[in-house]
Write a structure and sequence with these properties.
elongated, mainly alpha
Length: 98
C-alpha cells in the first residue's frame, strides 16, 4: 500500500469508528453529535502534539502541525459526524424492524 493511503486510513478509520460508537450508544442527539465531532478532532490534536513535542526531531524544516490540525482535524470531525448520522439511520431502522 502507498504511504498516503495508510495516512488517510489512519485518520479516517478511527474517526468513523468513533462516529459509529456514538451513534449506537448515545441516545441524546446533541450530545452524540458533539462527541462525534470533538473526539476525532482532539484525538488528532493529541497525536500531532505528541509527535511534535515528545518524539525526537527528525528534520524536515518548519513545523506544520497547526496546518495539519486545521485540515486533518476538520476532515476527522466531518467523518465522525457523518458516520454518526449514518449509524443512527441504520440502527434506527434495524430497531424498528425488530
Amino acid at each position: 500500500m502507498s504511504e498516503g493511503i495508510i495516512v488517510w486510513l489512519s485518520l479516517l478509520l478511527p474517526s468513523a469508528i468513533v462516529g459509529i460508537i456514538c451513534g449506537y450508544f448515545i441516545k441524546k442527539r446533541r450530545l452524540g453529535i458533539i462527541l462525534a465531532l470533538f473526539i476525532p478532532w482532539f484525538g488528532l490534536l493529541a497525536y500531532l502534539l505528541y509527535k511534535e513535542y515528545f518524539v525526537p526531531y527528525q528534520g524536515g524544516g518548519a513545523s506544520m502541525w497547526p496546518i495539519a490540525q486545521m485540515f486533518g482535524g476538520t476532515i476527522a470531525a466531518g467523518t465522525g459526524v457523518s458516520f454518526y448520522f449514518l449509524s443512527r439511520t441504520i440502527f434506527k431502522t434495524n430497531k424498528e424492524n425488530s
